[in-house]
Specification:
Elements (H helix, E strand, L loop, with lengths): L13 H11 L36
Length: about 60
Amino acid sequence: MVYGCRFLIYDCDNFTKSFYYHTFGVTEFQTVDVKQKLKDLPKMVIDLPQPSVFSFKFPI
């Protein structure tokens, strides 16, 4: 946990492997395939109101 949140280390370099070995005694590191396609996220649509009679346009 980092700052109270769970996280996943899916791959790491030799320095990180060495750190985990010396700090936590971890000797087995399996790479996790995370290249699955994420589902498309919905797009945000903002409906702007039409200008009213009280709207004012500044001259350019």
